[in-house]
Amino acid sequence: MRPRPLDQPPASAARFTRCPSPDEVVRGVERVAAARPDLCRLSVIGSSRSHRPLHLLSIGHGTRSVLVVAGAHPDESIGGASILALAEHLAEGGEPALRDTVWHLLPCLDPDGARLNRQGPPPGSMTEQYRGYFRPAVAEQPEWAPSVPGAEPMPETRALLDVIAEHRPRVQISLHSTDVGGTYAQLTRHAPGFAPAFAASAQAAGLPVETGALDAWRWASAGPGIYLLPPPGTPERPTAFPENAHRSTWLAPHAHGGMTAIVEVPGWASTRLADPAAHPDADDASARAADLLRGLSAELDTHLAPARDALPPADSDAASAALHAGLDATLRVCGPLADSWDPRHPAFTPMPGLTQAHAASLELFARRIALRASAMLLHLLDRSLRAGVTRTQTSHEAVERLLARRCGDYAASFAVRPVPVAAQVGHHVRCALALAETSAAV
After folding, report:
1. Parent domain of 73
2. Are residues 353 and 437 in the same domain?
3. What gap in Å lies between CA 203 and CA 220, rounded to an integer?
């Protein structure tokens, strides 16, 4: 059975003009559950490291389960809006999605991290988006932590794995977003028929389809923007990254015959990530990206050194500890990642078949990683100023200017355009419905 061409946005997606806060997401799923007690059950499946409840909204009745997870990365807040839109669509009678199917919706997998990120109206500029920014170290990301050697077990991870073991979802759909680029999906197993539905949805949302995603560089293609996990033992991520998809929570549904799909949507669209043409000089493109990342990292070091002593100590509170860990982990990966891209360096990892989209992805990662580090440094300086540490004022102003310049350079280089929140949400919801339908047909 082929999925319906889901090229029309659910009405529930159209109302979103901004991403809801974590508390607003919880109140939203509570309202959905209260409005349809015949169809919906709201439960608490565990708690976060800071003892915040992890909610699960279950909608429908049947023998088959679908699990949708939002907020695995706390800087990707669009997932909360998408979960609410999907919940409202299903509760309003979104058949055939409910046919013999229970949808389990996890509104926010990392509520602690989500509260460390910017809340409020949609950013009018990329600089606004990166104010009050937090991205945890990989060892503190619930989906990835099991794959990082030596990482402490996370209660959020345990809660997710328990849900998968109890409900045995035919498909787990993890809703993600990027700052700049296009849309793409990573699948741990083939989903026949999903590619045309994905393409139709991307077109309806006005999203470029990303054909050169660095996250899926070595994954096989099942159609434009659709990537399939390679076999165990095959390199699947840049060698500088500590995580491994085969040891992540993405593989947990396989124990019960299921699969996982990761759906990415961009906040700022760029067609550079969609150009499949061969690059005329792969080594030059790789070397340029390596030099860019090294240069951006070195520049940030000149701002970090004088500010270090004025930052809130990492052991002062949980938020400061998380921000320090995120900043330090981001900085640590810069050198090894640049070396792995550089044909002049012994650690170079060859990248055969480099396309224009791949070259753009290398530049994008260089800018994104350095920008994340800059933003978390500014976040720490913000906290110092609020605590009355006035000697941070000079560093704060300098890093604020640095962040604005880097965001401007990033936006200009990729000729970005903002993607309306409703378009991002609509694409997430349509893809979730299509994945549920294709997995039912397998």
Report:
1. 11-270+419-441
2. no
3. 22
